[in-house]
Amino acid sequence: MRIVIAEDDALLREGLALLLRAEGLDVVATAPDAAGFLEAVDTHKPDVAIVDVRMPPTHTDEGIVAAVEARRRLPGLAVLVLSAYVEQAFATDLLSHGSSRLGYLLKERVGRVGEFLTALHRVADGGTAIDPEVVAQLLTRSRPDNRLERLSPRERDVLALMAEGLGNAAIAERLFVTDGAVHKHIRSIFAKLDLAPTDGTDRRVAAVLQYLESA
């Protein structure tokens, strides 16, 4: 796995590189800003990019803009975005360009090495990884008049775990229920969110986007 890291905090940037190299992963480049990140992507053609949301010069959305541009230049690039806070608009922007091989984690998750590496590998393998705290806060912020209010508490639990990128078996294990029960809950979630089976549409992602957009 070839990795590029874009992070303006030198301590975190080099700490991440050391951590990943200690795990036997190939960090091919690090960059302190969006321009340097895109140059590294062009030069090294990495498999995965780890990108801070806020980078110089304005420390607003440079990381998200650069991540989207990097995926345009290198289709199939896996991107794991790091943020100090839950930023709903940035999470929505990222997922709106397609959810495959994408992750959004709070920086505090990096200190939980096992969870961080699990998310990194999930994204590299083609999945989606959204920080559980991001999911929880966005669900809490949902407007009371949106379709999410149709969901039962258990269905909201299942949706939250879907948003983290877990498959049915992993959700069943986390909630101590059967795979069949999870499948039933997911079908109910799709129905209540008016997500009909349509060719070319990933209903799991569409469900996640609905609550991101309603937060």
UniProtKB/TrEMBL annotation:
GO terms for biological process: phosphorelay signal transduction system; regulation of DNA-templated transcription. Signal peptide: none annotated. The modification 4-aspartylphosphate is found at residue 52. SMART domains: HTH_LUXR, REC. Residues 144-215 form the HTH luxR-type domain. Keywords: DNA-binding, Phosphoprotein, Transcription, Transcription regulation. GO terms for molecular function: DNA binding. InterPro entries: CheY-like_superfamily, NreC/VraR/RcsB-like_REC, Sig_transdc_resp-reg_C-effctor, Sig_transdc_resp-reg_receiver, Tscrpt_reg_LuxR_C, WalR-like. Gene3D superfamilies: 3.40.50.2300. Pfam families: GerE, Response_reg. This is LuxR family two component transcriptional regulator. It comes from Nonomuraea fuscirosea. It comes from the Bacteria.
